[in-house]
Amino acid sequence: MKVMTGIEGFDEISGGGLPRGRLTAIIGAAGAGKTVFALQTLVNRLADLGEPCIFVTFEEPIERIRSNVASFDWRADALDESQFFFIDARIPQDAVVTGAFDLEGLLAGLTALKEEIGACNIVFDGIDMLLSSLHDERLERQELLRLDRWIRRSDISAIVTVKTFGAGDRDQIRADFLQYMTDCLIILAETITATGSSRAIRIAKYRGSGFAANPVPVVIGPSGIDVIAFKGARIAYPMFSDRVSSGVGRLDALLNGGYLRGSSTLISGSPGTSKTSLGASFAVASCARGERALIISFDESVAQIVANMTSIGIELAPHVDTGLLTIASFLSGGRSPEEHFIEIRNLMKAQKPDCLVVDPISALPKADYPFSAMICENLLDTAKSLGITVLCTSLLDQAVGNAELSESQISTIADTWIHVSYVARDGERNRALTIIKSRGTGHSNQVRELVLDASGIDLVDVYVAEGEVLMGSARAQKEAEAERLHVLGDIAAERQRLDLERELAEAHARVQAATLELSWKQREADLVNVAEKSRVEVGRVSAIERLGLRRSGDDSLVPDLLRGTPVDLGVDQ
After folding, report:
1. pLDDT level of residue 405 (50, 70, 90 thresholds)
2. How far apart are CA 324 and CA 288, in angstroms?
3. 243-461 topology per CATH
4. Residue 19: partners with Cβ closer than 8 Å, 6 or more residues away
5. Highest mean pLDDT: which of 121-125, 222-226, 239-243?
6. 6: which residues sit within 8 A by CB, 6+ positions away?
7. 299 close to 360: Cβ distance less than 8 angstroms
8. Assigned fold of 2-227
9. Stretch among 305-309, 437-441, 528-532 having the lowest mean pLDDT
10. Hey, where are the domains in the chain?
């Protein structure tokens, strides 16, 4: 059986907490957080489960321990002496140790106290300080075994903290024996780097139970120990089908309507490519919809961000005043990546934003910190699990170049990746924007010029001429030249149309004249035909009339004449 420690991340990697009624050993160097872990576990069990606790100290005085507890935001009522009992078991400084001693008397007193208050949990803090006074490894092991037997016989959940300095063989021998004896062994370690320190916790052994064996980062803050548990599998995120505006209309068009709600977007680029401006525009668009936004900045102070965005028409101050927008500014070198993660996570839980902007997330990874790369991924997972739409900016090392790799190394897990870059040409540096990927949605593959002015951010179509992309004044000059050529083309086309119309009119006129002439010619031909027919008819009638004037004896000739048959009249023709 297991019992929760109340330390959320540790309960996750241990699969439910520490073993019930068994011995747990916490090993680590001085300052690693052993005592804080043990105290926090007792406080949580008393507050959450109502289980009375005993804390036995072999190193620090009780007053100092109480003072240390008061420095955390734990519930003070959990330390009521009737439920939370402190025992000072330190060897007095003026005591002279002669010969061997054992824990029998202490354990007898603890048995009576356990029965009196009904204690379910006990901590032996710094027991190595007592055991080292024995000056005998065999006696040390004997007393540890005595302690283990008492714990099992008392059916109490126990934690033993032991320091390891790593300077002598005796520390290692004691640690090795604890690994053999205890049911659960936890190792707290601290890594000192050139820029700071990083704490880690690792479960080295958990008898009869599965657990996450890899070390994970630990932060000691106002709430005590905070363990950042790295998940071994993707969690089920809430899924959305609607889109939210990026704050730039033409960018929304390139993304088929904007960012998918609950997704993560990475904007990478060199310094000065307007990554912060795009992030601020997204936050303002969220506030304009009545949603809450959180901006985390590692570059500038809050006042600087507000002033700089005002210069390009992005007003942050009104939304800060209404409480819809929260801006937090951190120094990247002031804390470790895991400390920044805890602070951002706490802000997300407190503010409950609908959108989160981290500018830049590349400030978190540090080469000399062991967990910095995983911190970035865990931050995205945490935000998406809360249904938050995330936009992160990331700085590139190259001031100019086409390398498509973000310094933060989250480009592979971001849902949408937008890259902004400089294009230097003809004495100018202009900004270009392109969408490298956008999972689960169609998007444009076109390059756009990003333009900043007093009215805000806009995307302008680039001019592609003979395979060359033109921006800035080169684009404007080319567009003006293209417009001039277009006007000249329109004039030439109009002139050609007029010429064709004139030629058509002339052709129609010629056709009409020819038609008229043909009509007159036809009429003349008709008149000629009529005249000829009249002449023939007149001749025929005249012939008939002349024949009628002849003798009646000649009447027999009339038929032949009428038929036109030649007749010999006996006279000269």
Report:
1. very low
2. 9
3. Rossmann fold (3.40.50)
4. 1, 2, 3, 157, 183, 184, 206, 207, 208, 209
5. 121-125
6. 40, 41, 43, 44, 45, 47, 48
7. yes
8. Rossmann fold (3.40.50)
9. 437-441
10. 2-227, 243-461
Task: Let me know if the fold of 2-227 is the same as that of 243-461.
Answer: yes
Contact yes or no for 364/340 (Cβ under 8 A): yes
Q: Determine if the peptide bond prior to 222 is cis (ω within 30°).
A: no
Residue 310 is encoded by which pair of tokens? 């005002």
Q: Is it the case that residue 326 has pLDDT exceeding 90?
A: yes
Size of the chain, expressed as the number of residues it contains: 573
Q: Please answer whether residues 277 and 269 qualify as being in contact, where contact means their C-beta atoms are separated by less than 8 angstroms.
A: no
Question: In this structure, what are the phi and psi dihedrals at residue 447, rounded to the nearest 5 degrees?
Answer: -85, 135
Name the pairing type of β-strands 456-461 and 448-453: antiparallel
- pLDDT value at 539 more than 90: no
Does residue 501 carry a pLDDT above 60? Answer: yes
What string of DSSP letters covers 150-189? Answer: HHHHHT-EEEEEEE--SSSHHHHHHHHHHHHH-SEEEEEE
**Alpha-carbon distances, residue 283 vs 192, 265, 353 (angstroms):** 37, 13, 10
CB neighbours of 431 closer than 8 A, spacing ≥ 6?
Answer: 273, 274, 420, 421, 422, 423, 449, 450, 451, 452
pTM: 0.73
The DSSP call for residue 213 is: -
| Nearest C-alpha neighbor of 441 from the set 409, 417, 411, 474 | 417
Interaxial angle between packed helices 62-70 and 34-44, expressed in degrees from 0 to 180 and rounded to the nearest 10: 70
- For the stretch 434-491, pLDDT in tens is 898 888 777 888 888 888 888 889 888 766 655 566 666 666 666 666 777 778 888 8
Say how far apart CA 173 and CA 158 lie, in whole Å. Answer: 21
Summarised one tens digit per residue, pLDDT across range 78-120 is 567 778 889 988 877 666 666 667 788 889 999 999 998 899 9
**Residue 268 is encoded by which pair of tokens?**
């990478």
Tokens of 119: 């204690």
